[in-house]
From TrEMBL:
One Pfam family hit: Chromate_transp
Species whose genome carries this gene: Halanaerobium polyolivorans
Chief place of localization: membrane
Family the entry assigns: Belongs to the chromate ion transporter (CHR) (TC 2.A.51) family.
Record-given protein name: Chromate transporter
Amino acid sequence: MIYIILFLEFFKVGLFALGGGLAALPFLQELIVKYGWISSEELLNMIAVSESTPGAIGINTATFIGYNTAGIGGGIIATLGLAAPSIIIISLIAHYFKEFNNHPLVKSAFVGIRPAVAGLIASAAFQLSRGQIFHFEKLNADLEIFNVLDLKGFILFLLIFLAIRKFKKHPIIYIITAALIGIIFKF
């Protein structure tokens, strides 16, 4: 039964997460809330590992969650579930691509899809940052921002964000740098 649930849930993630692996984050967040297969912290760690290893973040995360939930078979089933919609859709698109590529409806659909995907990614980033930078559970009646904001986490976030914008290096550089800073300063 768990194999069927894993396949169907990751099939839905693969079907609706348009825009790549990061677009899957809101759906993965929903899965961990719904089923408790992994914790939010494990999801964050998996994202960090997935960003620094070969392969797509969605596939790596599906494999990890599937494996944690139901062993090797679960990892395989979750990965197949995530990949199946793309395989089906791309096969259909490839068959009809030339006919519909320049159709105004297709172009208009992508104009609408792009900002929606950006919104999904931003929402997931906010959800994931809540436990790492912002601690809303510490908000008291005085609304003191320093009770809510993890200052060290926010400064590290800001430094890495600015470095990415200025230097535009490979993401692994920033991940390793952040990991080393975390080890040195024991975040």
